[in-house]
Amino acid sequence: MPTPTAVPTAAAPAPRRRRASPRPPARPKAPSPGEGAGPVAALPPAFAAWFGRRGWAPRPHQLALLAEAEAGRSALLIAPTGAGKTLAGFLPSLVELAASPKRRAALHTLYISPLKALSVDVARNLGTPVAEMELAIRIETRTGDTSAAKRQRQRRDPPDILLTTPEQIALLLANPGAKELFADLKRIVLDELHALVTSKRGDLLALDLARLRRLAPGVQTVGLSATVREPRELVAYLGGRADPEPAIVTAPEGAAAVITMLDSRERLPWAGHSARHALKEIYDEIRRVKLALLFVNTRFQAEQLFWDLWRINADNLPIALHHGSLDVGQRRKVEDAMAEGRLKAVVATATLDLGIDWGDVDLVINVGAPKGASRLIQRIGRANHRLDEASRAILVPANRFEVLECRAAITAAAAGAQDTPVPRSGALDVLAQHVLGMACAEPFDADAFYAEVTDAAPYAALARADFDRALQFVAHGGYALQAYDRFAKIRQGKDGRWRVSNGKVAQQYRMNVGTIVQAAMLKVRLVRSRGAGASAAGTPTGTGPIGRGGRVLGQVEDGFLETLLPGDTFLFGGEILALQAIVDDEALCARTSGTEPKIPSYAGSKFPLTTYLAEQVRAMTSQPEAFDLPDQVEDWLALQKAKSALPPRDRMLVETFPRGGRHYLIAYAFEGRLAHQTLGMLLSRRMERARLRPMGFVANDYAIAIWSHHDVGSRIARGLVTLEELFDEDMLGDDLEAWLDESSMMKRTFRICATIAGLVERRHPGREKTGRQMTVSTNLVYDVLRRHEPDHILLQAARDDAATGLLDLRRLGELLSRIRGKILHKPLRKISPLAVPIMLEIGREPVYGEAEDAVLADAADVLIEEATADDDSVETEGAGRGQTRRGESRA
Q1: pLDDT tens for each residue of 251-265
Q2: What's the CA gap between 742 and 201, in Å, rounded?
Q3: In the CATH scheme, what is the homologous superfamily, with its name and number, of domain 60-250?
Q4: Superfamily holding 258-415
Q5: What span, in angstroms and rounded, lies between the C-alpha atoms of 672 and 702?
Q6: pTM value > 0.85
Q7: What is the distance, to the nearest Å, from the Cα of residue 152 to the centroid of all Cα atoms in its chain?
Q8: Helix/strand/coil (H, E, C) string of 127-174?
Q9: What is the dihedral sign for C-alpha 729, 732, 734, 736?
């Protein structure tokens, strides 16, 4: 299978530095559009000439951002994809640097983006105008892939413009030379700001911005963002107390996107996520365009779709794969091949969601439901990437529920609706990491440092008591751990200032900085397969030595690899690999062939359905005749109406029915997988107290299914239990607390918080702890803290994370409040058509390759026959039968 190869490009020599000279006076403020001077006339001659040679004119929002910079104000630019946000963000810096060719060597502009690939791409694009105008401006990138030698040189001899990531900023600020490095910093450009502020990376970045504002007073910050619901929430990240009201510049919307949904000629599955039913039609769309981007929601789906496309690639089209677990070298080859027009299609995950400029992409195909209107708009923007040309996209639903979701997303995109998450309150574990990092840079006074921390938007409301708890945690680990010297990472000197305890602690910090805590991963290294070997009788055994030394293809979670035996095959990077052995932190593999390899799955890679789309799906299921739905979906919903009821928009439908010797309760809540999983856990506890003997549950984005030994429907009919009692809001009180105390999920969440806060470190000089070692270490600490210091700051951080992320308690609380007294119960004698998808998720064992669809189709046929049969007495044993016990959700 061919793979794209990198094309070497000659790097332009760095411009020579000249001696410093006084900065010339600032130019008069550029006129706003319509004030007399044309747009090009508002630029310096060299820039006006460059625009003219290209036949361009600066857009009004680009000039507006330049004017705000000249007025000394920070600003937020809200603009759609293709509006020239990046050039707008850099234009003030380029103009200033061009006006001062004899400046002192110093870092002038810092560009920060959430993706390494984005920094590399922007550097490449920014180099074009700099080279064509022959500007003496040095531009460099700094990411985790930058060599140690180059990183050291950048601290000694910084470029004019440095493009980097939040983690690298944290490392630079934790260096004792940070004050000198950033002293002359004039501007910070924050790209894709909307994607940063909703995560712990955004918390860390906000803290680092507060430190940069202290080191470089007067620094201007420019935020670049796609369209969001509340721009004011992003503005708070930019200026701090010194610049409390940054400007908001809004670019006009571009040409409306052309979005369609594939109405496949094939039978649309009732469940599943592969979209294999439409594979031939997807391939035909690829053939018709110059370059297509195919987005999926998980790395598992990316590997599967890529493999499926190559199996039918009779025309040998150049199709590539791009996701975060592939080796960085392979990802860069794909990106270069895209930029150079050597590919026909790329299958990608969120790694290509953000603003990388692929101007020649003329079609985006989203396989599966996008799970959010804003995410869909972001992905559609990858096509054309030009403001005045309509982007074209096709949505390919994988099942019938996803048809509703895709239709809702298309409607939302046409209306310009946004469902971006709101910015978060700052996490305490991130604060603890920052405390240690700043102590590594220089001793600090607690009062002054608290003032600095609260200048960061997510921590503006941080209580002094919580700040002091974080400080004391870094100082000695907390009350229960203070007897152990290894947790004492900072100390207070006689001058009252806090400083890092020793150089080893600083080294450990630098090796573990950041907030992205991945599951334990093993490198996948390509090797020669075992030699023939021979037994005593001379018979070949295939047990000879493994030839090591091949290239690293990427990384896979060790939990998946632990399920394989030597010789088992799996799919990675579009190739079938056979596991040879696991040695240290590497899975040694050889290329092989086969038809049914396993596909690695990755934790935490599923997007939950957003609240906005959930509401739209509820509207469609309650009144499908009001929407233009495909015939197959209309028939499915009509059948549901005849056999049971359609879920009302303002009420929650609950069905109960017997099947296979068990009794099922299906609740159509439409609040997303996370909220449903939490509801299933809490509802199981309630059913157990009601002596209904629940056995297990599953959840998807649309519903939950709980099965039990006792007939729930008959007990409801006899008044022995009520749905109002089972779904009462008070389950979020004692039931939630009791479940959290027992939950393994809390231990996993605590492990992440402990890693971010530096309580435990995965990376050590010359070695890295395994996932099992990290689990054992953090589980022991978790148990100690629960017994001896239940209000420990990291336990609080873990509870906060669980409430806002893993459990989605806000949405669950809103659901329980909304359905109070509004539950429609339909007791049935057999499964309904709408229940078929959730029932197919019960007890599913992982099956891979072509067999996966075959097994799912067989099970679906059985359930569909039951759900559509006229004879209400039909009940079949077997398919969809639950295999889990209570609390062992397969969702």
Answers
A1: 887 778 889 999 888
A2: 29
A3: P-loop containing nucleotide triphosphate hydrolases (3.40.50.300)
A4: P-loop containing nucleotide triphosphate hydrolases (3.40.50.300)
A5: 6
A6: no
A7: 30
A8: HHHHHHCCCCCCEEEECCCCCHHHHHHHHHCCCCEEEECHHHHHHHHC
A9: positive
